[in-house]
Design a protein that fits this description.
Elements (H helix, E strand, L loop, with lengths): L16 H21 L9 H12 L9 E2 H12 L4 H10 L11 E4 L18 E4 L4 H4 L9 E3 L6 E3 L8 H5 L1 E4 L4 E4 L4 H13 L5 H4 L13 E2 L3 H10 L1 E7 L1 E5 L2 E6 L6 H13 L6 E6 L9 E5 L6 H11 L3 E7 L1 E3 L5 E3 L2 H42 L1 H10 L3 H9 L3 H8 L8 H26 L1 H19 L26 E7 L3 E6 L16 E8 L3 E6 L3 E6 L11 E2 L12 E7 L4 E5 L4 E6 L11 E2 L13 E3 L6 E6 L3 E6 L12 E2 L13 E7 L4 E6 L2 E6 L15 E2 L9 E4 L1
Antiparallel strand pairs: 1-3, 2-3, 4-5, 6-7, 8-9, 9-14, 10-11, 11-13, 12-13, 15-16, 17-18, 17-19, 18-22, 20-21, 20-23, 21-26, 24-25, 24-27, 25-30, 28-29, 28-31, 29-34, 32-33, 32-35
Length: 747
């Protein structure tokens, strides 16, 4: 006897936590994949959708019936087949009833079932009513004809179909989306006629390639008239791999000066698009647009009106920008991941998907024919027994009247089966009329012909294939329609550059002595008269346009730039440039300039060195600026002088000692950066006390204003002849009383 003590069993099993967690998570993930999130290839439905459609058919809610409350359907679904939340179940029902969500809705709803603007704004299920649409017959029509397997429901009290006997590839017609554990599916909807055409092609030519099938299925067909702009080659590649993306773009027309958006991409809300555009308008990033209105109604489900500021606005360019920056153009992921006939999830290319569905359909038709053949043969068997009874009516009546157990006597006397004997005994007296014999023989002939036809079809693959094809074409002629989403080849939309979005308006940019900047609208601005913070005042002001860049030079000769339209308004004191840029410690902003990239300026220092450069060299995206003007110790940066024509303009240089030198701008080199050449001669002995006050470029016909205190002396272009000299010479001395020069200005 074994004396080993065995541990007592307490009704539970001990396993490592790691093993339990791994097994539990795997079971959960497989449940989500197979029983919740992914559709079955055969009928294209997830379990909740299948159960809703089946429960509605059991309630008699077919297309010709009166609708019933949605709560009644949801109650049956969750009470009998789908023990989950009622709100999730009702949402699935609503989705199948929304014509803007489903290409071919399976449910016809009465009441508020949401709108394209807010698909989830549907009323509660106690308020709405629903019934099946005619096309739901495609899924349910053959349900009671032995075409599906039945499984017990969750509590084993009822049976439900494992799948529905779809006569069309519903998976492609309405598409589906789902997120499982570790995988997802995104099948877009397609046009019924195109899908049937591809199926027929595959039946006729099983070796047809995906590219050849794409001659029939040209692309998805969403329930919206927005254009599909994905190139055909990309669509073919998507169907060849089973994954990819589709891009849809809103359609629009011109109505006078206005732009009217008439269709939005699939599942895009008009209110969301309007908010996206309005947000850009508030941020002053859409100066071309005056107003936006939503004029959508029942007659026009999508009508968004854009009002440009003027008739000169390029509508194509504006819409291209909106396509690139809003949901007026949207991309949809495609992932043909479905549960195949083998019960396993897999990403399938178009041919594999259609071929497998045709296998499913052929098997369904075969089961239907065999089910019907069994019924026909059983009926013929019963009719054969009934005919024997008619031919021996008196003997049959005698046996029934005299025998205690007529059933075995009838079977033995006439060689009948038990089923035939029971049928004779259950026959009503009124069926014993002589006319009934003719009806029996007529029914026998019809059933015999039907049996021969069914047997011939089952015995011939060609006939079976023809039957499948004919039924597909019949459903296509009944339920098919024209494509809704047009396929259009378009170039990719491009967002406009920030400067293109800004209205070109005149601006005066004002820089204060302490480095505060602002921009006033217009060129007739008295910058000195503007208000300044205490202890501050005007340093310099330049005229430009809102679409230009503005460059600032600091005391180290570094250059910084920013867009003019981003500068604060002149209504206030502006903002410090140190908030936008990061100059070296102790550096101060001393000059500014604005213009287009090709505009030329003379950059100069107070020690009398300078060069010509293009404005583009002054600009840069770097917040820390870029080295531009090389300065000698203690030199200051002068206000840049605008050059109109280097060949004819004269550069005028004025010193603090009253010396004025004019020479052709062409004598200066054009550099990208550097110290430049000597402009005017300042004796070494005077370098500590004399400096260059200002430089100015005077064009032919222009005049130069020499400012000295409160007085201004005006010199014409010809008057400057008296101060002409070679570059780097001393120049001429201004008249007595004008030798203290404060600044130069060109008028």
């Amino acid at each position: 006897m074994n004396d080993t003590v065995r541990p007592a069993f307490h009704g539970f099993e001990q396993i490592p936590l790691r093993e339990y967690a791994e097994r539990a998570y795997l079971d959960y993930s497989m449940y989500v994949v197979l029983d919740r999130a992914l559709p079955f290839l055969g009928d294209g439905l997830k379990p909740v959708q299948r159960r809703i459609v089946y429960a509605m058919s059991e309630l008699g809610l077919n297309a010709g019936a009166k609708p019933k409350k949605s709560a009644r359907t949801v109650g049956d679904v969750i009470g009998k087949y789908h023990p989950h939340g009622d709100s999730a179940c009702y949402e699935a029902l609503v989705l199948m009833a929304q014509p803007f969500s489903y290409r071919y809705p399976l449910i016809e709803g009465q009441g508020n079932f949401g709108s394209p603007d807010d698909p989830k704004s549907f009323a509660a299920m106690r308020y709405t009513e629903a019934k099946l649409t005619p096309i739901a017959e495609v899924l349910l029509g053959e349900l009671e004809q032995g075409t599906v397997d039945w499984t017990p429901n969750f509590d084993g009290t009822l049976e439900e179909p494992s799948w529905l006997p779809a006569r069309l590839p519903h998976l492609l017609l309405n598409g589906t989306t789902g997120i499982a554990v570790g995988m997802a599916t995104d099948v877009p909807p397609h046009n019924l006629n195109e899908v049937v055409s591809a199926c027929v092609r595959l039946l006729d030519d099983p070796d047809a390639s995906v590219r050849e099938l794409c001659e029939h299925i040209r692309g998805p067909d969403y329930p919206t008239a927005a254009e599909i702009i994905t190139p055909p080659a990309d669509l073919v590649a998507m169907y060849e791999t089973g994954s990819g993306s589709v891009r849809a773009r809103a359609t629009w027309v011109k109505e006078g000066a206005n732009i009217v958006v008439t269709a939005l991409p699939y599942q895009v809300s008009p209110s969301k698009v309007i908010e996206q555009i309005a947000q850009q308008m508030r941020a002053k990033k859409l100066p071309w647009l005056e107003d936006i209105r939503d004029e959508s109604d029942h007659a026009n489900p999508v009508r968004v009106v854009l009002v440009p500021r003027s008739s000169r606005v390029d509508a194509e360019q504006l819409m291209g920008h909106l396509f690139a920056t809003t949901d007026l153009e949207k991309s949809y992921r495609v992932n043909l991941n479905v549960i195949g006939l083998d019960g396993k999830p897999q990403v399938k290319h178009l041919k594999a998907l259609l071929s497998e569905w045709l296998t499913f359909r052929t098997d369904t038709v075969t089961r239907r024919l065999r089910h019907r053949l069994d019924k026909v043969e059983r009926r013929l068997h019963l009719l054969e027994g009934l005919l024997v009874a008619f031919l021996n009516l008196d003997e049959v009546i005698r046996i029934i009247r005299t025998e205690d157990e007529p059933r075995p006597v009838l079977m033995a006397r006439f060689g009948l089966s038990g089923e035939q004997a029971d049928y004779i005994l259950e026959t009503k007296l009124k069926q014993l009329a002589r006319l009934e014999e003719m009806k029996i023989r007529g029914e026998q002939d019809a059933l015999a012909q039907e049996r021969e036809s069914i047997q011939a079809t089952l015995a011939s693959k060609a006939k079976l294939k023809k039957l499948v094809k004919d039924e597909l074409l019949a459903d296509a002629s009944r339920f098919g329609d024209a494509r809704i989403s047009p396929l259009v080849v378009r170039e990719a939309a491009q967002a406009l550059d920030e400067t293109e979005l800004v209205a070109s308006e005149p601006l005066t940019v004002v820089l204060s002595q302490k480095g505060w900047v602002r921009a006033a609208k217009g060129h007739d601005v008295d910058a000195a008269a503007l208000g300044y913070r205490e202890g501050d005042g005007l340093l310099a002001a330049v005229r430009g346009r809102s679409t230009w860049q503005v460059a600032f030079l600091d005391s180290t000769g570094r250059s910084y730039s920013t867009a003019a339209h981003t500068l604060p308004s002149a209504r206030g004191n502006g903002e410090p440039l140190t908030g936008r840029f990061s100059p070296p410690p102790g550096a101060a902003f001393q000059a500014l300039a604005t213009g287009e990239n090709d505009t030329r300026f003379v950059l100069a220092s107070s020690h009398g060195y300078g060069f010509v450069t293009r404005f583009e060299n002054l600009t840069g995206r770097n917040k820390a600026g870029k080295a531009m003007l090389s300065l000698t110790p203690n030199a200051k940066v002068l206000q840049p002088a605008f050059v109109a024509n280097p060949d004819t303009d004269r550069l005028v240089v004025a010193t603090s000692a009253g010396h004025l030198l004019a020479f052709p701008v062409g004598e200066l080199p054009e550099l990208d950066k550097g110290k430049g050449n000597k402009l005017i001669d300042i004796p070494k002995a005077k370098l500590g006390t004399e400096r260059v006050v200002a430089v100015a470029v005077v064009p032919p016909g222009g005049t130069l204003a020499v400012k000295s205190g409160a007085r201004t002396m005006t010199l014409s272009f010809k008057d400057l002849d008296g101060y002409l000299g070679a570059r780097a010479t001393r120049g001429g001395l201004l008249p007595r009383g004008w030798q203290k020069v404060d600044g130069l200005a060109v008028e």
